[in-house]
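Open question from group meeting: does this chain pack into something compact, or does most of it stay loose? Before anyone orders reagents, we agreed to write out a predicted structure and look at it together. Recording both the input and the output here so the notebook holds the full record.
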Amino acid sequence: MCGIVGIWGKTEQVSVESMMDIIVHRGPDAKGIFVVPDGSGVLGHQRLSIMDVEGGNQPIYSEEQSIVIIGNGEIYNYPQLVQELQSKYQFLTKSDTEAILHLYEDRNITAVSELDGMFAFAIIDNNKFMAARDPIGIKPLYYGEKDGNFWFASELKAITKFCEEVEEFPPGSFFSSETGFSTYYTLPDISPEIDTNIDDIIQEIRQTVEDSVVKRLMADVPVGAFLSGGLDSSIIAAIAKKHKSQLHTFSVGIEGSKDVESARLVSDYLGTIHHEYIINPQEAIAKLPDIIYHLESFDQDLVRSSIPCYFTSRLAAEYVKVILTGEGADELFAGYTYYKDIPDDHVLHTELRRSISSLHNINLQRVDRLTMAHSIEGRVPFLDLKMIELGQRIPAHLKLKGDPPVEKWILRKAFEDMLPDSIVWRKKEQFDEGSGTVDLLTETLKDVMNEEQAQKYQKEHSQIRLRSPEECYYHQIFMDAFENPTAILNNVARWTENRQVA
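Structure tokens returned:
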């Protein structure tokens, strides 16, 4: 996990160094710069050492020094790629990023579709430049143009300092200086398998989730897991503990919150080394500027869920460098309350597919920014491509089942023997609800911005639909946080407006 920045075109190294300084939190362990001899490009890398801690600094060069790569993320099929490519190419490091470099040497940029992982990377190949982002958009990347040059960075705040207009690099795409943007992955539109034996589905879910978790234990540094005591994080912790003799788990919430109590229960049941942090209202409000600055959003729902994520990440950073988290399960298995209002299975299936495709600039943005704010790497097993494909094949009526319907029913059934019943059948609560953050904010923010002040603020910013005094306050902090807030503002996704139910 790292931060990458760069410019393709005539420019000065000092601009790239400035961008690197802005995202140093993404990779405080080492830094590296490559400048094309004729000045036609610069690559900058801030490293968080996860694989090959001692020898994996970037940029990484081909044997002839003619091809250079910088990367952010993890390539989980790295061992298989090494085995396949080592007869042709000499591997000088044990970094998974080097596998991308040699795969590119072997098959050009289209080889990106053979990578299994989360990533954003950039390559300079003599007089050519290219960049790519992972299929779902787990790892971030943004780009802009200035004076005919192509600028890119892992976070908006780095690039908007220089470019007035910035766009998100599309997930599942690569860019070539010769051909422009191309799509290499589109979320599969798979029809559910209606006549499928439930026991067979349960076994396939168990095996696929376990495989997804196990491959994400790959690291040369300590790995832990967020544990809210909800279904998704508890499943991941149970599988990880099965394959690790020791597992650190982390939970936060207000005093007496359901998440804190449930996480303790799961930790005791699994035998993890558990850590928790109790959030108080004053600290949460005091940290909002830092949270919103790192999040790069003012969306009310996203900020709410970012508060416990911020504190959990801060806690986890004291013990581990890699963290497993449960994002994606709600979108795959119909975990959110509003899904219950969709009466038609086909419409629900379509909405779940759309929800997965929208994660890159909402929930996944939160996970990336708030973990990286504390220099740890977040990994999301439920968003493994095989897991996503399986999720598409499972009929919607097995995801919401019963009267009243139970969300994620088939996922609960698949793991009911691995966890306490009270956890398996615990009612779904979003991170901000279960941790008590919503209650904390409702009371505390009353003294920060009242209805009258909010109405005035809404009129002053009428071009944006600010939904509440709370969101007005977040927007106010957002506008003060950045040198060029407008460029970042244009990339803010709205969680509720991402719902498109026919």
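Observations to bring back to the group:
The longest strand covers residues 67-75.
The first helix runs from residue 13 to 22.
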